[in-house]
Amino acid sequence: MRRLKAVIMYDGSGFAGYQVQPEKRTVQLEIERVLTKMHKGNITKVVASGRTDAGVHALGQVIHFDTELTFPVERWERALNTQLPDDIRVLNVSEVSPDFHARYGTTGKVYRYKWSLADIQNPFTRNFVVHMPGIKPDVEKMRKAAKLFLGTHDFTSFCSARTEVVDRVRTITRLDLIETELQELHLVIEGDGFLYNMVRIIAGNLWEIGIGRREPAEIERMLNAMDRKQAGKTAPAHGLYLETVSYGK
Fold first, then answer.
1. Does domain 106-247 have CATH number 3.30.70.660?
2. Is 53 tagged catalytic?
3. CB 57 within 8 A of CB 87
4. Positive or negative, the Cα torsion across 91, 96, 99, 100?
5. Which of the four CATH numbers 3.30.460.40, 3.10.450.50, 3.40.50.720, 3.30.70.580 does domain 2-96 have?
């Protein structure tokens, strides 16, 4: 038995999220369908670094699975991509130690959130960027607020009320707001882990600060409250990308 690690990317527009759900199309379902076919009907499960919601995209999601197939590891990428749907692609496959775990072995993740500030929505990016026409946020105020998220905090106020984990302390090491030449504003956030909807809630609150509905100083109050009701809206899913997942030091 071998354990293989794969880095995958997917367009989340056509999925009900990453994780298998009854009677719904998901990323995990499509990958396991192909692997089970390759294993002659023997169900082959995959484990991911974490779930992504419906509409959320990934550029560097990491999965692992166990296989008894013996063909060379360098053939796996092509073997999977020729059978997977066009909205999922395997970037690389490598053999790893039997104790490697795509979820529990993570030491950090990077997410990116995208807003478009153009007056006219680009029809080709409507599923990949959140369009905010006619709005020019105060990016400097957003950056001021972003600094308050850095470090180690209890993020109960910034995760879904449906979050199942009890320990909601996470460490954010980077939170940048980048203005691009395409009239887009990107939020790039890096940390040791993220709770359910955490990045989207942070993005939603920073956006409200940028358009004057909140003040930067409110972030500290929200963090201290440890109450989801004290924070603002959750930003739409389709602007979010899981960019990279880190393992080891």
1. yes
2. yes
3. no
4. negative
5. 3.30.70.580
Which residues fall within 8 angstroms of residue 52, CB to CB, at 6 or more apart? 12, 17, 18, 27, 58, 61, 240, 242
Q: At what angle do helices 198-210 and 218-225 cross, to 10 degrees?
A: 150
For helices 198-210 and 139-146, give the axis angle rounded to 10 degrees. Answer: 140
Tally the residues of the chain.
249
Catalytic residue, from 53, 119, 154, 227: name it.
Answer: 53
Question: Is residue 113's pLDDT more than 80?
Answer: yes
Q: What is the pTM of this model?
A: 0.96
**Domain extent listing, the chain:** 2-96, 106-247
Per-residue pLDDT tens digits for 34-72: 999 999 999 999 999 999 999 999 999 999 999 999 999
